[in-house]
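Q: what sequence does this backbone want?
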């Protein structure tokens, strides 16, 4: 598939997916969702990709939300389909077996905040802005925003953001736990790549296990979550990466993780 609304490239095991509609501040329409899904297919199939970064083309926006001019003409059934497709796409991102970093370089509003929240964590530039402004349009978040936001920042803060529709800056987003780190705009990409390279050097099996345990364990009780962790721990210990990591430690050398997921 030739992409028109995204750019997808892979270099040294790091996949970079850029939302590429800068004139519309990278707003999401059906075509973006389709191309995003196609790129996720590629990431799933290419075992050489160890980390994925999502960012926005241009210097103004990550994603300014769902494309309002697209949504406004849809019927209720089409809107449900659009919302479900968006939600499924974000579940797919969340379930990728590799780390996914949102590198937020400007506005991340509505669907933009929702996409960033489906990544494993968010790095943002000082000029980034987050929010769920749907209430200002007389609607509500439709790509899982009410659910992921409350899990990340707590119910009361999520209600305040979704009910007022206010935008918050990167500093405030960090204070409430939405964003992991904030950098000056000219350092954001470099710092994101630095972390991506660190992640790419780790064992794939153990990265996937951490992601699974935290992601899937979050919605179950502590005892079931810990039970899940024991199984994953045992699998990691006996995986090629686990053996290599422990042997390297005993031999006082740097580990070289190569293990595949299956
Ligand atoms: N959709 C379409 N076009 C957009 C857009 C968007 N979300 N955001 C910006 N643009 C376009 C503008 O229309 C403008 O286009 P031209 O007029 O140049 O043709 C261009 O991008 C530049 O924007 P501005 O001229 O407005 O730029 P400013 O710097 O003045 O303002 C802004 C930047 C980000 C503050 C402003 O553009 C803005 O407020 N944008 C809308 C942000 C927003 O409300 N986002 C939430 C969208 S609603 C659901 C599924 C999903 C969702 C809901 C339901 N179901 C199916 C149930 C999700 C909803 C959303 O995300």
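A:
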């Amino acid at each position: 598939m030739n992409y028109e609304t995204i750019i997808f490239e892979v270099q040294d095991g790091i996949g970079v997916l850029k939302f590429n509609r800068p004139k519309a501040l990278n707003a999401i329409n059906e075509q973006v969702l389709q191309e995003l899904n196609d790129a996720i297919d590629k990431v799933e199939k290419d075992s050489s990709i160890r980390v994925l970064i999502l960012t926005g083309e241009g210097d103004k926006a990550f994603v300014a939300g769902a494309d309002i001019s697209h949504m406004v003409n849809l019927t209720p059934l089409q809107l449900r389909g659009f919302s479900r497709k968006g939600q499924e796409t974000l579940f797919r991102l969340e379930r990728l077996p590799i780390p996914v970093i949102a590198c937020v370089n400007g506005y991340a509003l509505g669907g933009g905040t929702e996409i960033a929240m489906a990544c494993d964590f968010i790095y943002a530039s000082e000029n980034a802005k987050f929010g769920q402004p749907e209430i200002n349009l007389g609607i509500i978040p439709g790509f899982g925003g009410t659910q992921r936001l409350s899990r990340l920042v707590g119910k009361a803060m999520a209600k305040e953001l979704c009910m007022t529709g206010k935008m918050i800056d990167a500093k405030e987003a960090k204070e409430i736990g939405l964003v992991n780190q904030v950098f000056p705009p000219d350092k954001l990409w470099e710092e994101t790549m630095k972390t991506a390279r660190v992640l790419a050097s780790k064992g794939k099996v153990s990265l996937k296990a951490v992601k699974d345990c935290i992601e899937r364990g979050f919605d179950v009780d502590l005892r079931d979550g810990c039970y899940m962790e024991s199984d994953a721990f045992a699998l990691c210990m006996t995986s090629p990466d686990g053996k290599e990591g422990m042997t390297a430690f005993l031999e006082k050398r740097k580990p070289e993780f190569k293990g595949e997921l299956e």
